[in-house]
Amino acid sequence: MVALVAVLAVCLAGLTAISMQVRCIDAAREAARLAARGDAASATRTAQGIAPPDAVIDIRRDGDFVVARVTTRSALLPMVSIGAEGVSAAEEGGR
What we know:
Elements: H1 2-36, H2 40-50, E1 56-62, E2 65-73, E3 81-89
Antiparallel strand pairs: 1-2, 2-3
Protein name: Pilus biosynthesis protein TadE
InterPro entries: Rv3655c/TadE
Organism: Mycolicibacterium iranicum
């Protein structure tokens, strides 16, 4: 019985991590896209709305590209850092 509970806990932690990873990917992609258009404030707000709670959002310019990185930690797997990076080409007139 204890083994069954342990297996279920590990499966739940894995599903939670996968869900958080998908949210980080979506948030990073949207943040990079909006920041590349020159709307960094909206990019951060949008990423905060999509990303898991307590996620750290970092948007930076790298030459002709905008890079958005979203990282967080799972409550069920505190030793594992979950994150994603989105890259978009900066548009003309975007800052």
